[in-house]
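Hey,
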Amino acid sequence: MSCIRFNTPAQRQAMRTHRPAMLTAEEAAALHPAPEVTESKLRRLRLLASEANPKIREAVASSYNTPEDLFLTLAKDPDEGVRGCVAKNEATPCDILRMLADDRSEIVRGWVAVNYFVPADVMEKLASDRSRTVRSLVKWKASLSEETTGAPKAPAAV
């Protein structure tokens, strides 16, 4: 007995007719809204941000609901992983990304370079970063922008 199933044309048409509708991202988000950000949640984030375990602080740094003052505190964290999570979080304010562009860790600066919401002046600064890796990330991100828009960007120094 074969495990291959052959559907008749009528069966294939019935499956096409009754297949579920594909939702846009906006429609899916409307059907499954994110939970409300409450004072209790913000208190928990503040409490967890002071945990000794850096992985727990990384979780706070990765949250879209982290308050700005907590992002600033975590951006100064002694652990490179925590600062990296702040750098790659799309909710991180631009001024904090500017600050992290000067971080001593090339990993943190690299995460700043690939953050979608990093300001253009920071990208220009990172294009001449002392780390070849960071410069390469800036160049790679610029090439993605070229592919999307079709317009060439000014080449980044490598």
